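Problem 12. The chain below contains 811 residues. Write out its predicted structure in token notation.
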Amino acid sequence: MKSPLRKRLPRELRNNVGKYLGMFLLLSLAIAFTSGFLVAASSIELIGNGMRDEYRTEDGHFATSFEADAASIRAVEELGCTVIEQFYYDAPLSFAGATDGTQARVLPNRGDVNQVVYCAGRAPESTDEVAFDRVFCQNNDLELGSTVNLAGRDMTVSGIMTLSDYSCLFQNNNSFIFNALSFTTAQVTQEAFDAIDQGAFVYSYAFFLDDRNMQLPERTALEERMVEALSESGEVVTDFVDRESNQAMTYALEDAQGDQMMWQILLVLLIVIMAFVFVVLTDATIESESAVIGTLLASGWRKRELVAHYLALPAFVGLAGAVVGNVVGYTLLVLPMQGLYYNSYSFPPYYTTPNARVFIMTTVVPLALLLLITLVGLLRRMRATPLQFLRREIAHRSKRSNMRLPERLRFTARFRLRVFIRNLSHFATLFFGIMFGSLLLLFGLAMMPLMEHFAQESAKDVPAEHLYVLKAPVEIDVGESQREAYAAAEELMLTEDPTSIDPVHLAALYLEAASVDEDANIANTQPNARETIDQSEKFAVATLQTPRRFGDEPEELSVYGIQPSSRYWSEVPVEDGRACIGKGAVQKCGITLGNAQTFTDKYTGDTYDIVFDEEVGNTTTMNVYLTLSDFNRLFGNDEDYFSGYASDLPINLNERYVANEITPEQMLSAAVQMEDSMGAMAQSLLYAVVPLFLILIYLLTKTVIDRSARSISYMKVFGYRDREISRLYIRSITITVLVSLVACLPIIVSIIDVLVKLLMSRYSGNLEIWVAPQTYVLEVCIGAATYCVVALLHMRRIRRVPLALAMKVQE
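Solution.
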């Protein structure tokens, strides 16, 4: 037999439409945004992880000064890999609206390795056709049929593509930022490739390991043997990049993986907030229905039947919210969320892959939480007797509600104070609710300014205007004869066919090169002013790993060997064998001064124990500092070894030996890239947070109005107008909301600090919470504006409280 109580469900839903609508929207919006993003990001991660096999992407690549002969390639392949030619050159590109200095990396049409994926059009078939990267075309409004000028040749765009080994457009693997505005990959026919003015031709070779599951230390050892085999065969290796170090292949995927952590943190916050709201709403429901429950219990209804009845509507609303949230997330929000990545990165065509883990996190857990909390709340309240329900004595009433107030206060002031005292527990609940909502709001508002602040602090961490990291020690303080000798040796080394050189000049080159000291460091062939040489300073740098405080992945730290009493690292006291550690590394890795910290070389597996004496730098400093002599002893280098120069003036160096140049401007440019890659993400986060904040404030403040419905009815009977009643009740809530918005800020910042540390546990570097003063003001203003909307809804609710409610018998 069906329960007659089911007939009450439509009426209960109609009478409490605001509460259940708020619950529905809270669930559906939370599920829609989080499932939409996490499904999109996990699908992109799946696509990225599958590219290695699906598109046969390389395990690494190397470049030589000239085309390697067959014997050299065989020597490398005998070590356990397959080598494929991937020659290219960078050529100037111009078209209507092009940025000055735009370049294209020109490659011939590819075969079945490092495969190309065409998003539109087709591969070039004639010498006047070219295909460009999809993101570059999108950023520069290039379409199929557009005319461009490539190295002086007019060509037509026949295809818009994605190269599987260029998911992110890094022109140089050592660059801090990618460039999808003035750099692109381009494919042409082999005939066009041979005919175009090639400029600086790069003899690049992709290699594919026979054992593609080889661990990194073994793979590093194999790659070192590959370089040795090439050198022994007479080849000059100008570049060697493993797939894990190739930013063009890994940066975009790591970004998608890392961003999931931010949304998972948001999901955890939303689950906590929803649990908090469900507790409040369950208590409010039982308190408002206490007389009905008491009557039903006195009439013989079992408690389990009433529990089932009052659980039915939350279950129905929760299920509806879950269904709608998933439908909206999977149909309307997945593609916009996917676009956050596809607008910056050149992934292959997107397809959505349902993820069971995401479904459990975003749907099953919140829904189960709603039902469990409602059930526990009902069971806890059902311990009361029918008489307690009838007398509305199920809630603890504080003696504060009957306390005498000073008579010197005006009636309106005493009334508002009485409203506040009688609803003190609800206002305390409101404070914590506002704190949770403000936490979401401030988290979304503070992300981009925080990244910009991080870039500025990182720029301060660069000690000189130029840090040159070298591939080998290069001496700049050399005489003219040494420069000429090394210039002659280099010209001979870089000439593919020495017999093509004039015999007289060739003899002079051999004579000059004969004076090169093979045991000495390389001499720089570029001249520099004495002032430049005198103000420059040698240093050495290496990269080691150490465990992070949070997370399973190790943190990579730069170990610097610097001069004692350095002019550039003037605040780093490494004299007398002291070791210093950056403040950021101490925070991120939990390093303790005076205790040995173990570091590992990920390429060789070697471990090093370092005891630190002092903490230096700011919260972004992730470096270890030793004297240059201690550095060389630690790593077993020659006494005169170094690998870089610090200089405030630009140094003319042979580019063949420069691995990287670091400047403060590059660090600031990183903020532009962060804004480009994370700006849309932070904006979408705000789109999710603001409506959730509004719903949260509405649901929590509604409980105060509902609890005071009888008192509001009395006020109407006594002749008070709706506007006057609104001032009495709404103003008390308004003061509480505004005070709460400001008072909870210190607590929120502390919580965000912990959340940021959890977020950065997947990223390199240390990010300490920093909130700009204007961000605080903006957060309070948005919170206040949101509450104004809620207050208007409550004023409408007050107008609808009937006078007949005051006439009803309460007991």
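Discussion. Residues 6 and 298 are 19 Å apart (CA to CA). Students who got a different answer should revisit the alignment rule from Section 12.3.
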